[in-house]
């Protein structure tokens, strides 16, 4: 039993309860070290588990919870810490004054399609950040979509298992967790969790937002759950231009659901933002294997695709950035090439980013509709990367209209730091990231800016560019 005023882990003072639902309870607490408000979540053991199953649940929920800290994105509530406990871990999260989408629907009823599409875009961006961390969410539903008082939409409250290994371990113990009304058929029928399972739950959430109810009102009995998992929900009646997308996301076959880029294009078209006409009817044979392949196949494909994304053909005469088409099937439409600067700095770029020498590094742009990239070594080398980015922000943001800092913090790896922001330049809003990384004592600066409405689709390309970076020999 948790009491008001109790001190957790010698640091977090419990102030009052925030919410209770499902398997978890949430309290507002004061972090007496950082002097800030945090949210404390405690997961309860599911009812009906045997002692052995309870042991599996305790071990894996603590292990999985630590994975949450890998996700850092403005559309995802941050997990700050995981505290071990005898029954289940405490999860420390940032506190965001907000209402859940469920509360909004309860108070206001169904929402218009354009507003739902905007919420869906923010949830999708958060979901893509979860994917980039190698995780799944597995509990997307209206009560886990938060609308902050400043208007930001955030995805919260990951499921108890967020990696394929965790899902497999719990399923092996007979534990399949999630909210039945928003649970993809493959999870109900086979206990299989795929990235496409989160897309199904997104579709069910969008359905609820426009209709005022979920696609299924599923009972808790096993027989009813399995019977409904075999059915196809009725198309929504109030979704208007969102109808086709929602129907596509709720397809029973995971391989037949649209890819995230298609989902983004469809949502943008409903919000009035420019986007190519989405093809919501992908060819299943070109997609990830169906749910019958199971978790092992899904994990294997993820590894193969991650490796393939970095494979390119570098010919002997490619010293000046001559394009070499990528051999990888991960980017068949665009291809990649190696660019080598005059100082020997090497980086892999998409074919549509034409690079040229700029100082000691490179400049590449697909302006005005695509990304702008710059990279070069910094001289002198700054001793503190966070302080260097903070000073860079001070100098570069002065007088910039609509400037908003998203974060300045330690970046990927111990020897890096990121400054992420949005601002208005000319007629449009940009979303950018400035990254400093230390290689062998030399700090390299990377700048990546894109139109704000293309951030979600372009960020994976920046990640691949950064993963390919090679410092000059000896540098």
TrEMBL record:
Domain of life of the source: Bacteria
A GO term, aspect molecular function: protein serine/threonine kinase activity
Keyword Disulfide bond listed: no
Transmembrane segments annotated in the record for this chain: 295-314
InterPro entries, A to Z: Kinase-like_dom_sf (IPR011009), Prot_kinase_dom (IPR000719), Ser/Thr_kinase_AS (IPR008271)
Every Protein kinase domain range: 12-280
Enzyme Commission code: 2.7.11.1
Coiled-coil residue spans: none
Protein name: non-specific serine/threonine protein kinase
Gene source species: Paractinoplanes tereljensis
Phylogenetic classification of the source organism: Bacteria, Bacillati, Actinomycetota, Actinomycetes, Micromonosporales
């Amino acid at each position: 039993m948790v009491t008001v005023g109790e001190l957790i882990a010698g640091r977090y003072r419990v102030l009052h309860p925030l919410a209770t639902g499902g398997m978890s309870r949430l309290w507002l607490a004061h972090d007496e070290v950082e002097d800030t408000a945090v949210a404390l979540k405690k997961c309860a053991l599911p009812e009906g588990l045997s002692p052995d199953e309870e042991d599996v649940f305790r071990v894996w929920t603590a292990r999985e919870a630590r994975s949450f800290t890998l996700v850092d994105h403005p559309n995802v509530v941050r997990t700050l810490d995981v505290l071990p406990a005898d029954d289940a871990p405490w999860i420390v999260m940032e506190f965001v004054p907000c209402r859940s989408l469920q509360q909004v629907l309860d108070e206001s009823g169904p929402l218009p399609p354009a507003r739902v599409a905007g919420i869906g875009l923010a949830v999708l961006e958060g979901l893509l950040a979860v994917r980039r961390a190698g995780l799944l969410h597995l509990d997307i539903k209206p009560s886990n979509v938060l609308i902050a008082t400043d208007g930001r939409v955030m995805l919260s409250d990951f499921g108890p298992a967020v990696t394929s290994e965790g899902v497999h371990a719990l399923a092996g113990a007979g534990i399949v967790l999630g909210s039945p009304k928003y649970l993809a058929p493959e999870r109900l029928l086979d206990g299989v969790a795929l990235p496409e399972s989160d897309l199904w739950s997104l579709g069910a959430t969008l359905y609820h937002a426009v209709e005022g109810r979920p696609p299924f009102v599923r009972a808790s009995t096993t027989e009813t759950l399995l019977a409904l998992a075999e059915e196809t929900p009725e198309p929504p009646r109030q979704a208007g231009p969102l109808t086709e997308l929602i129907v596509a996301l709720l397809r029973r076959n995971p391989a037949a659901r649209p890819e995230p880029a298609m989902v983004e294009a469809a949502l943008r078209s409903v919000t009035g933002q420019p986007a190519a006409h989405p093809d919501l009817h992908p060819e299943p044979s070109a997609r990830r294997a169906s749910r019958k392949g199971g978790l092992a196949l899904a994990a294997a494909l993820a590894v193969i695709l991650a490796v393939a994304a970095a494979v390119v053909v570098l010919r002997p005469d490619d010293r000046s950035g001559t394009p070499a088409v990528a051999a990888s099937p991960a980017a068949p439409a665009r291809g990649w090439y190696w660019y080598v600067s005059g100082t020997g700095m090497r980086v892999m770029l998409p074919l549509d980013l034409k690079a040229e020498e700029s100082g000691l590094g490179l400049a590449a742009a697909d302006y005005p509709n695509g990304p702008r990239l710059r990279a070069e070594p910094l001289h002198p080398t700054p001793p503190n990367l966070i302080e260097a980015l903070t000073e860079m922000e001070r100098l570069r943001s002065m007088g910039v209209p609509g400037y908003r800092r998203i974060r300045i913090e330690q970046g990927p790896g111990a020897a890096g730091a990121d400054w992420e922001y949005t601002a208005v330049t000319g007629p449009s809003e940009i979303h950018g990231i400035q990254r400093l990384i230390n290689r062998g004592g030399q700090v390299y600066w990377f700048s990546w800016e894109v139109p704000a409405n293309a951030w979600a689709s372009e960020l994976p390309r920046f990640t691949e560019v950064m993963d390919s970076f090679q410092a000059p020999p000896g540098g």
